[in-house]
Amino acid sequence: MVFYIRLLKQPEIAMTKAKVAKAVVKALITITTDLGDEFFPDEIALTAVLILAPATERDSGESTNQCITWKNGMRVLPLEFSLNRLDVTRAIQLHISCNIASDGDLLCPARMPTIVSVWSEVHNGVNTKTEAKMVERRFSLGKDFSLSIWEEMGESIARHVWDAGLALVAHMQSILKESPKEMSRLGHILHLERSKQVKVLELGSGCGIVGIGLAQLMSKCNVLLTDLPEAMDIIGFNISRAQPAESSWLAGAIFDWNQASSNAISGQQFDLILVSDCTYNPDSLPALVRTLSGLMSQSGDTSIVVSMKVRHSSEAVFFDLMSEARFIVVEHSNITLPDNHRGRTGRTLESVDIYTFRKG
Questions:
Q1: Is the dihedral of CA 328, 333, 338, 339 positive or negative?
Q2: Which of 168, 58, 156 minimizes the C-alpha distance to 112?
Q3: Is the pLDDT of residue 138 over 70?
Q4: Cα 263 from Cα 71, distance rounded (Å)
Q5: Most buried residue, 44, 81, 111, 227, by most Cβ within 10 Å?
């Protein structure tokens, strides 16, 4: 499985109460799975980097590195940096990772990250209050592609990056590199050599990593990200900071699967429908399959790509419902997630399954 470094609260600058007061930056982190149901079980060295903004227009920024150790059995790990008292009014940012690289965690189907790094928001000094509620994830799919996604801070699982989303972005990027002779069915839709705009709809977008990732990877791609109202702020924030490829664009819209229709998608036809990390709650699956059936009748000859990490046996009902709705699986890929601990103890390695569905 993939683990995520999480800031439990934003870094803050404080003055100690010792006889000789000094300035310190404090933060609190944990390392958990995407659902927060398991803590990282091994000892691992981390690098915490405190980035200081330039003191004046003539100065350059500075950074201070600190090696910290996460140990087996930990649930939280406090961090503390000492500051020069002259620096307490400077803006700061904190980056915590397994390495010191700043270009992001590498994503590819054969090499998914074991631990995903985190960047805090910028804090504007000791005399300012912050209501920061987000953190940044940075990913690299090679020297020519980077992806920045902001997610909600803390242990809540809502509107976070999840494993199946990471795997699907990596999978789509690898498909875009396929040669025409070896092209998969999904590759025919995603391949760069096209004569028309490709219209893509994502359901249950969360923080938007899948749809935004595709729009940055693929030219001539129009992606509509949809979710419930409470996800619109984070989706809009990430869309505003995205860098779509040439002739591609992104938009967000509210779409509740339990409602008959949405003005944002009513009457539209889509070439591709993306669903990632949406099958974990079996109670929502009937509404999801009804929604997919309605979209298929609206769009005609389209493909549905579902990326899922099976977490319990009750998710099998999704395939029963899809079969009853006359959907068939036309492609299936499996991406094994890294987990040295499970490998050593003989436990089965987790994986993400990516299915392409069409109407039978």
A1: positive
A2: 168
A3: yes
A4: 51
A5: 227
Q: If pLDDT is split at 50, 70 and 90, which confidence band does 99 have?
A: confident
147-161: burial string, b at 16+ Cβ within 10 Å, e else = bbbbbbbbeebebbb
Query: Taking 80 as the threshold, does the pLDDT of residue 21 lie above it?
Result: no
Least Cα distance to 184 among 333, 300, 360, 327 occurs for 333
The two tokens of residue 200 are 């893509």
pTM for this entry:
0.90
Helices (H), 79-231: 163-176, 185-190, 209-217
CB-count burial class (<10 Å; 0-12, 13-18, 19+) for 141? buried
| Pure H helices in 269-324 | 285-299, 317-324
- What is each CA distance from 33 to 168, 177, 182, in whole angstroms? 17, 30, 35
Give residue-wise pLDDT tens across range 46-58. Answer: 999 988 876 555 5
Distance CA 280, CA 309 (A): 8
Per-residue pLDDT of 211-266, as tens digits, reads: 999 999 998 999 999 999 999 999 999 999 999 999 999 999 999 998 866 677 87
Residue 87, pLDDT > 70, answer no
Non-local CB neighbours of 206 within 8 Å, separated by 6+ positions: 158, 159, 160, 161, 162, 165, 227, 231, 234, 235, 277
Query: Which runs of E-coded beta strand occur in the chain?
Result: 3-15, 23-32, 44-52, 62-70, 77-83, 92-97, 105-106, 115-116, 118-120, 134-140, 146-152, 198-203, 221-227, 249-254, 272-276, 303-308, 327-336, 351-359
Token pair recorded at residue 63: 């950074």
